[in-house]
Amino acid sequence: MQKPYLHIALVGNPNSGKTSLFNALTGLNQQVGNFPGVTVDKKTGLVNLDNGLKTELIDLPGTYSLYPRRADEWVAYKVLMHADQEVEPDLVLLVADASNLKRNLLFCSQIIDLRVPVVVALTMNDLAEKKGTIIDVKGLEAELGVPIVLVNPRKNKGLAELKNILANFAKAPSINNRADFIDNQKMAPTAIAEVQKIFPQLSDYAAVHYLINHKSFPLSHTVLEQIEQIELDNQFNPTKTQADEIVQRYGRIRQIMKDHVSEPDPMESKMFSDKLDDLLLHRVWGYLILTAVLFLLFQSVFWMANYPMDAIESAFGSLANYLSTHLEQGWFQDLLVNGIVAGLGGIFVFIPQIMILFGIITILEDTGYMARISFLSDKLMRKVGLNGKSVMPMISGFACAVPAIMSARNIENKKERLLTIMVTPLMSCSARLPVYTILISLVVDEHYYFGFLSLQGLVMMGLYLLGTVMALIVSWVMKFTIRIKEKSFFILELPVYRAPRWKNVGITMVEKAKIFVTDAGKIIMIISMLLWFLCSHGPGTRIADVEAKYAAQIQVRPVDEALLNKQLSAEKLQNSYAGILGKAIEPAIRPLGYDWKIGIALITSIAAREVFVGTMATLYSVEETDDSSLRQKLTSAKHADGSPVYTLPAAFSLMIFYVLAMQCMSTLAVVKRETKSWKWPVIQFVYMTGLAYLMSLFVYQVFG
Q: What is the largest CA-CA distance in the chain?
């Protein structure tokens, strides 16, 4: 009986064209989640086959063989071994790169020997032709015993034929006449037979994997003990078995390549990619070009995101003004305007940066340059416990730590990925820029060296450099304290250079924005409403007494209503729970050179660092958009003893605090999502805040 719903697992080597095929077959009918228990993307999409059968395509992480090392490879492995209780494929669609057929046939032959229904999609045929490779597809199909379809996802070629074969194969999958690729019985015949007594449905090769990796499968304790006993009785050696298998497979693959594939002389002239790598991976020019590319990346994200972010802020500002004007004043209006709308604004304002950043990263990946960036930076990163793949998340952190942390998923090693996540927020994101700008303008003169080097600009650059250096130092320290014992392999394939797939770029941008809004956004909204409550309410009748006082003054001085309303906002904040908390922490922050008003700003900045300017504007009763007026107020701000608040040491102390402190709830939310635990965001918050306090204390006490 035909199933009402067909599940197809899409598998293949990295850089084989798997993602392109997935996007071409599913279009925008995609969903992104996580596989159970691991932070690995679970991409699924609906495909319309010719027979009208409802079909779900599951894009499994790329892997080179059925011997997994990384978390994402284990995900693919368990699905293929039918050891994943939530994902059960009826059919495997295997993507193979025609231009690297010998390497791809290893994984392909392993899937075939599992004796599951398999259809092979052969990609990169145009590239194979350029290299002079000619493949006898019919002969290869007969040799392997599985259907093979030539496809070009970029140009939508071969997709109709592929869908037709998938539809026909779904009706009557044939694996009975398929011979094993290698002779598995040569490796451990008795042990294989005994495992098959427990699991009669297993092929010889699948039984070998149950002997090797049974501890990772969802089996009962009794069955695990049975397999352990089979291993002991037969003196089964997993390492020797795996080595024998690989030798057998490559012997057969060499014969297949000889019989069905014609390849050019490898000593012929280099391809374009090889010639380009001579320049881009050069020990001098390569690093100069890398620096220029990263500079342009940062500038592009910074510049391009400004306009949509301003538009989003303006839209939410207009919405807040509209609701303030048309709704009756009261707690509900205050919650809606200053809690919910403000919280939503804080979520959506990040979307342009997330979409632009991931769009540019996807372009770099599609073109093949991303792999070169990782290769060039690996030597430096490895000295501090990271690897070459850490550099892109860290550089991306200059724009925003949220998408930067999300992009750390491509780091296979758990420890290096965790270290990257833990230090990326130290890179100065764009949210810190308003704080830097206003504080630098208060205490640093507009002086120019050589007529063009701005002193203020040099100070700004120093703050960015400080964050970068501290990130490397912290990573070096943490590599000794994070006890994750996993060998680090930096095995990197340098793909050929290709034009970006713009459809893929667009889909990725939409996907990443959707993930941020639906997942991190929930936590941001909860914390936003909590902050609204702390800033809008106070103990007893404090807030009501302040409102009554200013209501009486407005009646007496109606001409000064606007000024009095600003003073009312400042005094209400001072008497709110947040204001009381600011007063309470003043003794702790006074050694840093801060007063209680800066304390309130530090508390409200937990929502987002850029809130500092708005909070100070409210406290000093000035319009947020009137920067010059705010600067004047800050310049004239005094302590109770009459001494100025914003001295040079105090301002630098505050700048360094904002460089190092964790003051971004959206970042903490994303760290929680990526690590699947509150442990790491809590550690991150504590160490960054502690480091910020100590460094700021040192600066103020030494130079104050």
A: 100
Residue type, 300: S
Distance (Å) of CA 506 to CA 361, 432, 510? 12, 29, 6
- The residue-averaged pLDDT of 94-102 equals 89
pLDDT on residue 529: 73
Q: Which of 25, 312, 279, 327 is nearest to 152 (CA)?
A: 25
Beta strand pairing status for 118-123 and 453-454? unpaired
Burial of 455 (0-12, 13-18, 19+ CB in 10 A): middle
Rounded CA separation 135/127 (Å) = 12
What the block records as the tokens of 272 is 């374009």
The answer to whether residues 11 and 108 touch, using CB atoms and an 8 Å cutoff, is no
**Nearby residues of 138 by Cβ (< 8 Å), 6 or more positions away:** none
Average of pLDDT values for 521-539? 72
What is the rounded CA–CA span in Å between residue 373 and residue 371? 5
Sorted by sequence, the CB contacts under 8 Å of residue 303 that are 6+ apart come out as none
DSSP per-residue string spanning 323-351: HHHHSPSSHHHHIIIIIIIHHHHHHHTTH
CA 470 to chain centre: 22
In the 3-class helix/strand/coil scheme, how is 538-584 assigned residue by residue? CCCCHHHHHHHHHHHHHHHCHHHHHHHHHHHHHHHHHHCHHHHHHHH
Q: Which residues contact 419 (CB under 8 A, 6 or more apart)?
A: 385, 386, 390, 475, 478, 479, 482
What local confidence, expressed as pLDDT, does residue 488 receive?
A: 55
Residue-level pLDDT at 621? 44
Question: No. of H helices and E strands in the chain?
Answer: 32, 11
Supply the pLDDT for residue 149: 92
φ, ψ dihedrals at 176, nearest 5°? -65, -35
Range of 175-179, 253-257, 488-492, 505-509 with top mean pLDDT? 253-257
Cα separation, 523 vs 669, whole angstroms: 6
Q: Of 237, 202, 501, which is closest to residue 368 (Cα–Cα)?
A: 501
Lowest average pLDDT, out of 114-118, 406-410, 493-497, goes to 493-497
What is the four-CA torsion angle of 6, 12, 14, 19, rounded to 10 degrees? -30
For the record, the structure tokens of 63 come out as: 């892997």
Q: What are the structural domains, with CATH classification, of the chain? A: 5-180 (3.40.50.300), 185-242 (no CATH), 285-478 (no CATH)
CB contact at 8 A, 550 and 572: no
Q: Does the pLDDT of residue 665 top 60, yes or no?
A: yes
pTM above 0.70, yes or no: no
Q: What digits encode the pLDDT tens for the residues 328-354? A: 777 777 777 766 776 677 667 767 867
Q: What length is written for the chain?
A: 704
Q: How far is CA 197 from CA 188, 191, 237, 322, 329, in A?
A: 15, 10, 20, 73, 75
Whole-angstrom distance, CA of residue 173 vs CA of residue 186? 28
Task: Supply the pLDDT for residue 574.
Answer: 79
Judge contact between 180 and 113, C-beta under 8 A.
yes
Beta pairing, strands 448-449 & 118-123: unpaired
pLDDT at 627: 44
Question: Radius of gyration (Cα) for the chain, nearest Å?
Answer: 30
Closest among 595, 606, 684 to 646, alpha carbons compared: 595
- What is the amino acid identity at position 240? K
The secondary element (H helix, E strand) that includes residue 394 is helix 391-396
Bridge partner residues of 57 (DSSP)? 8, 45
pLDDT higher than threshold 90 for residue 510: no
**What is the distance of C-alpha 203 from the center of its chain?**
38
Task: Give 676's contacts (C-beta < 8 A, 6+ positions apart).
Answer: 37, 38, 39
DSSP β-bridge partners for residue 134: 262
Residue at 398: amino acid letter: F
> Which pLDDT score, from 0 to 100, does residue 512 have?
76
Supply the pLDDT for residue 683.
94
